[in-house]
Design a protein that fits this description.
The complex is a heterodimer of chains A (about 240) and B (about 290). With about 240 residues, chain A is α/β, with parallel strands linked by helices. Chain A is built from ten helices and ten strands. Helices cover about 40% and strands about 25% of the residues of chain A. In chain A, helix 3 runs parallel beside helix 6. The N and C termini of chain A lie far apart (about 40 Å). With about 290 residues, chain B is mainly alpha-helical. Chain B has eleven helices and two strands, in the order H-H-H-H-E-E-H-H-H-H-H-H-H. In chain B, strands 1-2 form a two-stranded antiparallel sheet. In chain B, helix 3 runs antiparallel to helix 4, helix 5 packs antiparallel against helix 8 and helix 9 packs across helix 10. The longest helix of chain B is centred in the first third of the chain and has 32 residues. Chain B is globular and about 60 Å long. Classes of the chains: A alpha/beta (about 240), B mainly alpha (about 290). At the A-B interface, helix 2, strand 6 and helix 3 of A face helix 6 and helix 7 of B.
Amino acid sequence: MSAPLLEVRGLRAGYGELSVLRGVDLRVGAGEMVAVLGANGAGKTTLLRAISKVEAAPQAGSVVFDGVNLASLAPQRIVELGLSQIPEGRQLFGELSVDDNLRLGAYRRGRAEREESLRRAYALFPSLAARRANAAASLSGGEQQMLAIGRALMARPTLLMLDEPSTGLAPRVVEQIFGILAQLRSEGTGILLVEQNAFLALRYADRAYVMAEGGVALEGSARDLAADESVRRIYLGAALDEER
Amino acid sequence: MIVFVLQLVVAGLTVGSAYALVALGYHVILRATRAINFSQGEFVVLGGLVAYTIVHVLHASPWIGLIGATSAGFALGWIYERIVLRPAARNGDIAVIIATIGCVYILLYGHALIWGSLPQPLAPFTGAQGQAIHPGGVAIQEQSLWVFALLALAFVALWLLFDRTTFGKAIRAAAVNPVGAQLVGIDVNAARAASVGIAIALAAFGGTLIGPITLVGGTAGTAIAIKGFVGAVVGGLDSPLGCAVGGLAVGVIEKLLAGWLPYQAVDPVVYALLLLALIVRPQGLFGRKDAVRD
């Protein structure tokens, strides 16, 4: 097997003195969609934060992205390498326009690249094009999630990490967003997806990790995990009930 | 009578321009770091003294003095953010307030050690000292005309920077959402340092502009800092236009009061104005209501 796009080894990370992750191992290949499941407080969000080095900080272990060890790199250099995150709560620039939010997404890219990415983003999300001059804060929840995805794509990532993209959105919007993620994957973008809705995540992902208490409790193909009795009982039970 | 009043208004707009630039500096730093930089006035004085050194010690033109002082202001502001504001911010808002007040005294006595405690004259940008035009009998110093023109220029430059350039928008993005900014690859620390650099550059620019009218150096910094703050609060700390108009208004009110009241009574009335403004319209004349809770 060739070297994965992202390889996390023995990652310990947290906030200040506090460790939340206690040695996480995880890989994502190019064009692969990998889901991270687990209960609240298992460390899923901290994992993404520590990889991006925004808010949480790695304390031990290594994160290698596209052959580069991220240990000594500042967050903006990580984005420059092609690793973008769409965080929980989206973290848009509310007072700036949709257009400005998107353009800032390509802050680390050249002007020509920025204009081309902007055209692509509006082609992908036509509803954003209609509201390009509006303040980001004035958009609906679904539009804000699309803007967050559009903004992250402006940096031309080869790996996209998403934290709970389905939270608070109508099922129709969720389907649309996952359709776009599937399309990105087919174009070769790696996707690392943290999701509460295990049922949804396992339906779209190739592989998945189940986290518990700051470590990886289970890993496998999405198909195997969806069939796994303990996963079904603990993580899919609620989701299956919701589906009914 | 009318000439007398207009004369006071011109004098007020001239000193008010310095308050306006200080007020804009408060706005820029507040927006980027959520702190009020109380040492803003001392940087006005320091900017004037740097210009004085360039013009009267190195014998360069006043324009070189203006460019030199403004550039030095930007560099000092950058350093100031790195060694004072950023470390203080790790210890909370109160630490920042104490640090910026402490810097008032470091700068005040620091520049007295270098330049002495007596104010120095600074050459006007054009013409002889005090040279004026007299439209309708009102004397307007040539230097005042430069002050008005260059205040307008600084204001337009700020607007272009924050509303028309990607770099300016990145600074705003870093201020409104540091986490989001880092995730798109904006260096949030650099954005903050640049903001403080811009604010201190504005202060130094203002000190050089009014230097030929008010003298440079001495202990004027505290009054400029407080009056600039009154202007910013009256106009609206979150509005650049409000800060500029508020600063000018404080200058005009101060000079009009000085036309009739004994000088000891002027400053108390100006400060009473601050209290009144805070009570009646806490968001300022041009501020948004939702900015108050910040």
